[in-house]
């Protein structure tokens, strides 16, 4: 016992002497936090507002009675996610799948790279795309341990789980020209990514977009809080096909000629800055998970920076609060009650008259930065495309949700709230208090989305005393 007391005293002395705090409670040292506004986003300062219908419920749905609620501060995309932005996601997934298939085949045939591999240029053989952890002896002790105990073993579902791909600066680029494929193994992998010629359109080699799948993990917090400990905290979502459903331009409108939009809208550069459509709620969630991972992967390479919190879909309350732009009891994001300004010009892209889609200057969607933004600098919070929210739809939810950051996170309810109205909707759906819904696995030619990120801290509130 005496030895234990003596040891404790010595340990206490060592700990005390090793610090420069003179024995005072000064708090654990941490990196200084510098708030960083995400690119393309604007800060929506939190505060209280009257949520619900500002005017008479003309449709008599009675699902949005007025209720005073408060939301926290958050960043929100200034525009809907565009085709170009969503294509960045698609291209990253395609690149990852191709590199994974190349690495797996290189591993199976025993290729580890050619002597003539050129840094940052097109590879000389499939071996140049082998897994980056081929040389175990050159690994750090940590990487070697992880490789030997986890990555080289894999999982029951994926024997290559955890293996690192060669990508980024200094690594071989993927070869796009079929005539320059380095060997027959490379040809085999690339051929597996395309549809057979018998199914190709006009003889053009067409990517099999069903191969473009993304998988991510998330926490079901409602289930997590009922558990003890962290075991089983994460839910593995099944792989999600992430390519937009371009056929919605045809299936949404019977007896209508919209084939040009089906053929060109998502991939052609003419539509880069237009909002992406044909994306389901599940795909929008996958995009949010990828955007978070993509940013944190970059930050991980930098020293002295904390990782960001998640990008996500806005809750229904956050969306309405942001759409109002700080204007109390407004009908539209610009105030209202009219859809035209004092010069007689329409303030949004919608269907103003029966059968007349073009009276507002647009037949289909318009570029994401069109019309005037609201007072939070958010574009097209009314019209253009309706937008997915995180919340599940219940006609009576306003009666039971909390008054602080209200949300209905019911995973079993597949009806998800969409807001804002679209290019094919009448003015009723443009009102900031109007609610609508669509099923999570459905995609439409008039539904897109934008993302949000929680603001770290509590200082930024719209009602904070000066």
TrEMBL record:
Residues 40-94, 221-452 form the Sulfatase-modifying factor enzyme-like domain. Transmembrane segments: none annotated. The keyword Repeat does not apply. SUPFAM superfamilies: C-type lectin-like. Pfam families: FGE-sulfatase (PF03781). Keywords: Lipoprotein. InterPro entries: CTDL_fold (IPR016187), Glid_motil-assoc_lipo_GldK (IPR019866), Sulfatase_Mod_Factor_Kinase (IPR051043), SUMF_dom (IPR005532), SUMF_sf (IPR042095). PANTHER family: FORMYLGLYCINE-GENERATING ENZYME, SULFATASE MODIFYING FACTOR 1, 2. This is Gliding motility lipoprotein GldK. It comes from Flavobacterium okayamense.
